[in-house]
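Why Odorant binding protein 9? Reviewers of the renewal asked for a concrete example.
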Amino acid sequence: MFLKRFLVLAVAVAAMLPTSEAYMSQAQVKQALKTLRNMCLPKTGVDKEALNKMVDEGVFDETNDKLKCYLGCILGMMQAVKDNKISLTMVRNQVSKMLAPEQGQRIVVTFESCSGVTGTDKCDLAFNFAKCVYETDKEAFIVP
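Here is what the prediction returned.
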């Protein structure tokens, strides 16, 4: 569960700190995840139960637009979407700055394998990307 949460925090903090050589502490990771969640929950109105079922059990409700837009909000906050496509350049840069190589490499490989997913809009793209990441490597699936 820690690894799931670590990437989102790392990417969020990396977006806020353009230059950094140190990796994030567990406390920093928890705080960044909390910040992302607290920002995106009220923006989207996603039901916490649906969100928890996705994160904990891998239940992706295709009909839940609020869940899709929550994921879109998270990826948007991470600056991981550009022109309705996943921006691997941004992901790689942020992961390499914030995660130890042994942790970051697994995540980058998984994200690369899912980078070709598409969606009708940012919310749909984020949902399809998250589902691909979960199905490819559950340990690389990080959603606050």
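Helices lie at 2-16, 26-44, 48-57, 65-77, 88-98, 101-114, 122-136. This is the kind of structural detail the renewal will allow us to pursue systematically.
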